[in-house]
Amino acid sequence: MPAGAYPGDEYVDWVGIDGYNWGFDPTWDPGVNHWTTFDQTIGDAYRTALRIAPSKPIAVSEYASAQEGGDKAEWFRAMFADLDAGRYPGIRLITYFDTVKEKPWAITSSASALQAWVAGASKPGFRGTGAQLAAIAGDPTPTPTPTPTPTPTPTPTPTPTPTPTPTPTPTPTPTPPPARGCTVRYTTNDWPGGFTASVRITNTSSASLSAWSLGFTFPGDQRVTNGWSGTYGQAGQAVTVTHAPWNGTIPAGASTEIGFNGSFTGANPRPAGFTLNGTPCEVG
Length: 284
Prior knowledge:
Low-confidence stretches: 174-178
CATH architecture of the largest domain: Alpha-Beta Barrel
CATH topology of the largest domain: TIM Barrel
Helix content: 10-25%
CATH class of the largest domain: Alpha Beta
Mean pLDDT: 86
């Protein structure tokens, strides 16, 4: 963030920074290990933000670590230890990029990474609330409401008696189909002959969902080569994914994310539909 781009403290509530530990074999430099620690990932940006806006709270508004190239669980443990020890006192909010896109960034990319994250996030220093975050930057000064100018009351004009018109017969409104209990968002990152797919499953029902199984059918010759956060099976074009031990329950209104790598020839169109425990889902 160049200092010349900073508009001034009176216009800024928070300063945001981001960074990624790309690990081994990133798409922009194949075959090379770019593993960095949490400090190497965001340290320079943090110190720049402090220098430019020392009085403003800092949000790590987007960051993540790859799985390959190092120990992701240890990366999480070292990050939480540094934050808990007050090494970055200006950071008041962190937002992890918990998804699978160019890399398997998700916290659930391995059981050890998930365990390290849960242990770190359970510490007392990481149990803030939205109200506390709002109080950090302070409330803006309210703008006074202007007093309205009285409008003179016009002299009423006699209203003629209207001629009654026939009441049209209303057209019956069709009954909408019942809402489905799940939504699936499917995104891919393609390269010649292969792709990484990210699948977010949201429970839109009013009840918790347990022991889920997701089904879909590829429209082409796509094949799942390996996946994470679930057990994958494929017969022809039909794919079935059953939950992993740590994500088998999806509370009402909550989501879980899975992903996989695949191969294809020609085109890679996405599946037209998804089912969750046999029930069709909306495709987001």
